[in-house]
Amino acid sequence: RDVMPTDQMDKHPLQNRWALWFFKNDKSKIWQANLRLVTKFDTVEDFWALHNHIQLASKLTSGCDYSIFKDGIEPMWEDNKNKRGGRWLITLPKQQRRTDLDHFWLETLMCLIGEAFDEYSDDVCGAVINIRAKGDKIALWTKETENKEAVIHIGRVYKERLGLSSKVVIGYQAHADTATKSSSIAKNKFVV
Amino acid sequence: GTRIIYDRKFLMECRNSP
Questions:
Q1: A51 contacts in chain B (CB < 8 Å)
Q2: Is the pLDDT of residue A70 over 90?
Q3: How far is B14 from chain A (nearest CA, A)?
Q4: What's the rounded mean pLDDT across residues A160-188?
Q5: To pair with A111 at 20 to 30 A between CA atoms, which of A4, A17, A20, A43?
Q6: Scanning every residue of chain A, which has its alpha carbon at the shortest distance from the alpha carbon of B16?
Q7: Which of A60, A46, A27 has its CA nearest to residue A137?
């Protein structure tokens, strides 16, 4: 304990270290150049310090994303930890940006850092929020579409944590399907 | 090993503590 720096005392460690990424759409640059690693954190206190410091998602301009991923996983389909996986997708009509978007995103973040999915939390890779004029999206990414039990458990808990009505159906799509889709709607592999 | 789990209530309390 003698060697622990003062600012690390009394902080609550997280199970995982997480990285926050920011994407800003600048069409003059290639996609990867618009994606920036903001910072990493691994305690509850550092999470809140970060969350309180950055712009609320609902205040970002259209075309921007926040992503939060486990350290070592890049927020893109191509990453080895993502490529066999998929995402639980929440789409929000424009009018819900004001009422629900920031709340849903914070709940998503708390599910991730708090390891809300018990042993299936190991299947979680991260989450992404897309701010778009045509409708915002929040997605929770998992590592393996074939891990049906994990995917379904995560979807059920996630839906409950967001406080969504049992009448609302949310879908899980494989990244491989999203990446190759010809229409604007990828098919759902699972729903809860 | 043991997983470090924090429920919503605990996380929100940490947010509000000085």
A1: 15
A2: yes
A3: 7
A4: 88
A5: A4
A6: A48
A7: A60
- Tell me the DSSP string of A153-183: HHHHHHHHHHT--TT---EEEEHHHHHH-SS
Contact between A15 and A70 under an 8 Å Cβ cutoff? The reply is no
Query: What is the distance, to the nearest Å, from the Cα of residue B18 to the centroid of all Cα atoms in its chain?
Result: 15
Using a CB-CB cut-off of 8 Å, the residues of chain B touching A114 are 5-8, 10-11
Higher pLDDT, A51 or A180: A51
Using one digit for the tens of pLDDT, what is the confidence trace for A5-55? Answer: 666 668 999 999 999 999 998 888 887 889 999 999 999 999 999 999 999
Asked if A89 contacts A104 with a C-beta cutoff of 8 angstroms, the reply is no
What letter represents residue A159's amino acid? K
Contacts of B15 in chain A (CB under 8 A): 48, 51-52
The answer to whether the CB atoms of B3 and A118 lie below 8 A apart is yes
ipTM more than 0.85?
yes
Going by the DSSP 8-state scheme, the letter that residue A118 receives in this structure is G
Give the burial string for A44-59 (b: 16+ CB within 10 Å, else e). Answer: bbbbbebbeeeeebbe
Q: Output the pLDDT for position A4.
A: 64
- Please, which residues have CB within 8 angstroms of residue A171's CB and are 6 or more apart in sequence? A88, A89, A188, A189, A190, A191
In this model, does residue A183 exceed pLDDT 70?
no
Q: What is the DSSP letter of A46?
A: H
